Amino acid sequence: MSDEMTITPDTAEVAALRVYEVGYHIRPDAPEADLDKMTAGVRAIIEKNGGSFIAEGAPAMTRFAYPMEVREGEKHVEYDRGYFGWLKFEARTEVAAALEGALKTDRNFVRAIVFQTVREDTRAKMKAPQLREVKRTDVTHKAPRRVEEVSAPVSEEQLEKALEDITTE
Question: What fold is seen in the domain 9-116?
């Protein structure tokens, strides 16, 4: 008996399948009505080559962290925003390479990346900020206290005498 493992076509197919994710930016001047058509084009490439979908994020307008420059003909165009979308799918390695090549040649996409990932949901969960209640019992610095003078009623004569003393000095 040989030490080699026999691979049937069914197990070879399963072994070659990997989970990928594609993230893409569509030009901001693309009509919103065409966004579904562009996303359907990405899905068509995957489906045509035998891939299956796991999850998807529809394109939404977002501001880029930095401007991206794209060459269009003889000139360079700079974009500071665009529609960002993503797809997670399972397919063979050749499908991922074909998808990446197709997205790089499509002028509607500013930038795209295809990478291998895991099937589980890996997105960061948005947590509401937790506010901590702080009770101030200690005073960090003490302001000088104002001492209020308590005085008795002043007569007109005492007031006149005090004014004379101040003005004559």
Answer: Alpha-Beta Plaits (3.30.70)
